[in-house]
């Protein structure tokens, strides 16, 4: 599974990359901003893109829609956050994300389930 991780926190990016790579995920890239994410997604063609809901002053929800428009939905976009699913339910409507995964539950298995469309972690 080829994954791009988008988050405005470099420490989280480093930790998530290490965790997922240890679990056999190929992390093809990371991005700190929406603009960088759009460029990296077009360049790297990941199968899954993990997008933090809050990217500093940018919106991960807006980025999710832009990514879906850019690649025609080829990549499964999964929203990630420290916020709870309940806090995000209303915000995520219309985001075109494949699902939501709390950062505390990040794993290769959870990503795989959501990307395959059979995850209880979906929105």
Describe the model.
- With 123 residues, this protein is an alpha/beta fold.
- It has one domain: Response regulator (Rossmann fold).
- 42% of the residues lie in helices and 24% in strands.
- It contains five helices and seven strands.
- A five-stranded parallel sheet has the order 2-1-3-6-7, with helices on both faces. It has a two-stranded antiparallel sheet with strand order 4-5.
- Strand 6, helix 4 and strand 7 form a beta-alpha-beta unit.
- Helix 2 packs parallel to helix 3.
- It is globular, with a radius of gyration of 13 Å.
- The two termini are 21 Å apart.
- The mean pLDDT is 88.
Please describe the structure with a list of short key phrases separated by commas or semicolons:
123 residues, alpha/beta, Rossmann fold, 5 helices
């Amino acid at each position: 599974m080829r994954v791009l991780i988008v988050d405005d926190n470099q420490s989280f990016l480093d930790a998530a990359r290490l965790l997922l790579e240890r679990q056999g995920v190929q992390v093809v890239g990371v991005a700190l901003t929406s603009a960088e994410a759009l460029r990296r997604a077009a360049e790297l063609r990941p199968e899954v893109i993990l997008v933090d809901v809050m990217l500093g002053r940018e919106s991960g929800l807006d980025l999710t829609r832009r990514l879906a428009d850019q690649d025609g939905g080829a990549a499964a976009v999964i929203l990630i956050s420290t916020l709870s699913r309940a806090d995000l339910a209303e915000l995520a409507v219309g985001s075109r994300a494949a699902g939501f995964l709390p950062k505390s539950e990040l794993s290769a298995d959870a990503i795989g389930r959501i990307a395959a469309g059979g995850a209880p972690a979906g929105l």
